[in-house]
Amino acid sequence: MHTNRLSPARKFLLGLGAALSLLLLAGCEGIVLTNLTSGSLPENPSQIYTITLRATPNADVIVRTSIAPHIIVDGQSYAMNKSALGEGIYEFDYQLPAGRDEIAYYFLVNYDVTTNGTNSPQEAYTEITHAKIVHRYVLSLEVNRGPVGARISVLGRGFTPQDVIYLDNNPTRTVFESPNALSFFVPALTVSRNYQVMLGSTAGNSPVGTFRIDPSNLTVTPTSLNLRPGESQTLSFTIPNPAPPGGLLLDLTTDAPESVIMPEVIVPQGQTTITVNVQGGRPGNGSLFLKGYGAGELTIPVNVAAK
Q: What's 260's domain CATH number?
């Protein structure tokens, strides 16, 4: 019986071919690593953040069952678990140490390559990646449209009393509710158009969304006031629809501040009418002005006559 044996030269060529296959595999990214984690992670009370990786084999010679992804953080290696998000996706929940607001990490994936029935261990790794913990962020506007004077809530995290909401760079009257909520009154700007909403503070500006100012009508009774110093008269405002949550601010201004004494006017939530007392101050003539209603501005003449 005759048996063919491989010559030393043949063995050398086969070994060289296997080595070249491994080199070509490494050069062609035998396994593609894709970081699915955002560079900005919203802060959460648990201080646990999920880091996600997709490992995609790019060659048939990779033994898929051998793929073992790890995440390296602070010099420590942690095995990653298969994710329910899909095939080839792995994740790891990292507990951020106290006093830290950034995670620096990279991925290391071990896997086997089979050549001529022999498995050879390989590894792939990524560059160091930084993820910043965001202590301040905006989740959403409560609503995206409303009339002039409506009180609109903004939900998020990390708000401060110094924060101001802007509509197309126009500052609004902003109310600090809590670190997780702000509200603002829709300013008297041009109606029937959209505005870009922005949160501004010393920490920088953050986009919030888009808000549309809708037109609205309003009636005032009486349409003018005649007073004497110290004398009071009621002034009633009526809107066509119930005031939205938080009430409806009627931002009145006057060109005779020493002659007109009156409180802030807010139509209560769910109501359509508000009545306030207007008191005469120093003798003089002027007007009350209310923008955003009717043809764009309502004018209420005021005369305070001397006794």
A: 2.60.40.10
Q: Position 56: which residue type?
A: T
Going from the C-alpha of 177 to that of each of 55, 124, 161, 184, the distances in angstroms are: 44, 49, 8, 10
**Per-position pLDDT tens, the chain of length 307:** 334 444 444 444 444 444 444 444 443 457 999 999 988 787 777 889 999 999 999 888 899 999 999 999 988 999 999 999 899 999 999 999 988 889 999 999 999 998 888 889 999 999 999 998 877 677 788 899 988 888 899 988 888 899 999 999 899 999 999 988 999 999 888 888 999 999 987 767 888 899 999 888 889 999 999 999 999 999 999 988 888 888 889 989 999 999 999 999 999 989 999 999 999 999 999 999 988 886 677 899 999 998 7
Closest by Cα among 132, 62, 123 to 102? 132
| Domain carrying residue 31 | 8-133
pTM: 0.54
